[in-house]
Design brief:
Layout: H1 2-14, H2 17-24, H3 28-42, E1 47-48, E2 55-56, H4 58-85, E3 88-94, H5 99-111, E4 115-121, H6 123-131, E5 137-142, E6 149-157, E7 184-186, H7 193-205, E8 213-215, H8 219-228, E9 232-236, H9 237-243, E10 246-249, E11 256-263, H10 266-273, H11 277-284
Parallel strand pairs: 3-4, 3-5, 7-8, 7-9
Antiparallel strand pairs: 1-2, 5-11, 6-9, 6-10, 6-11
Helix pairs in contact: 1-2, 1-3, 1-4, 2-3, 5-11
Pfam family, one: HTH_1
GO molecular function, one term: DNA-binding transcription factor activity
Keywords: DNA-binding, Transcription, Transcription regulation
Length: 288
């Protein structure tokens, strides 16, 4: 019906089957068949073909405005479809994701006809944004067992570590009271019960002072302390490399950031989990 009306409108506007078909981008024979089919459907002629010139019948004049509206609506729908395909999908992402890797993620999403807009936020804020439907999707912090992406954590320091793993017992203050206590700084991204609590309990069992395991106000603040003091930053290997720190895994406890996707639409959820899985892993510094 839309194709036939488009041919009808084009021919009536040009007064010729040849010119009208060319304007509609179809062969003249196709335009003639479509208009004939439309006339058969209506049970009345749209054009008077008794002379060289193509003239509308009185019935055709009455039907032309409606046909134009149908064609205009079809064109508007096509435009809406294209806009819907390119609709921006706002995704709440961890603040720890480096900007260059986020930019690469956005570029990768466009190859899959998905236009991402990333919104960095802390773990609690990402939860809130998803629950309030202020974003279309979010990369949420979850325990390792429920994760689609996993990021092993360790300690980072300005000087190399003497062993392949760090034992918390080695951070106890010695008999010399002048010896500074090396603190473990937890960044806000890891200020979660399933990461913070096991580390705090392990520190107590190893004989560390309560103040030796502490939450920093921000990642920048924690990294600055690790760069300028003996303090240690709890972080991923990628973060340690970005800050120019030496990284070493913990012997105990084994700490792993876990991430999963929450999305309002199943289609968005599947695309983020599947076609963009490796690109998201690079942003998070996750193991593959």
């Amino acid at each position: 019906m839309v194709a036939a009306c488009r041919a009808f409108v084009a021919v009536s506007g040009h007064g010729s089957f040849t010119s009208g078909a060319a304007a509609a981008g179809i062969p003249q024979s196709v335009a003639s068949r479509r208009i004939a089919a439309l006339e058969g459907h209506f049970g009345a002629r749209l054009f008077d073909r008794s002379s060289r010139a193509v003239r509308l019948t009185s019935f055709g004049q009455d039907m032309l405005p409606t046909a134009r509206r149908l064609v205009d609506l079809a064109d508007a729908m096509t435009d809406d479809v294209e806009r819907a395909r390119l609709r921006p999908l706002q995704v709440a992402v961890p603040e720890t994701c480096p900007a260059p890797r986020l930019a690469a993620l956005v570029v990768a999403s466009r190859r899959h006809r998905l236009k991402l807009e990333v919104r960095p936020a802390g773990p609690q804020e990402r939860d809130r944004l998803c629950q309030a439907l202020e974003v279309g999707a979010g990369i949420l912090a979850v325990p390792e067992a429920a994760a689609s992406w996993r990021v092993p954590l360790g300690l980072a320091a300005r000087t190399p570590f003497p062993a392949a793993t760090v034992f918390l017992e080695t951070l106890r203050r010695g008999r010399a009271r002048t010896q500074a206590r090396r603190r473990i700084l937890i960044q806000p991204e890891d200020d979660l019960a399933h990461l913070r609590d096991p580390l705090t309990r392990a520190g107590q069992s190893a004989g560390l002072a309560p103040a030796q395991v502490t939450v920093a106000p921000s990642l920048v603040d924690a990294a600055a302390k690790a760069l300028s003091s003996p303090d240690l930053l709890l972080c991923s290997r990628q973060q340690a490399e970005d800050f120019g720190l030496h990284w070493c895994p913990l012997a105990e406890p084994r700490l792993v950031r876990g991430y999963d996707i929450a999305a309002g639409l199943r289609e968005d959820l599947e695309q983020l989990r599947t076609v963009l899985h490796s690109d998201i892993a690079r942003c998070l510094g996750a193991t593959t």
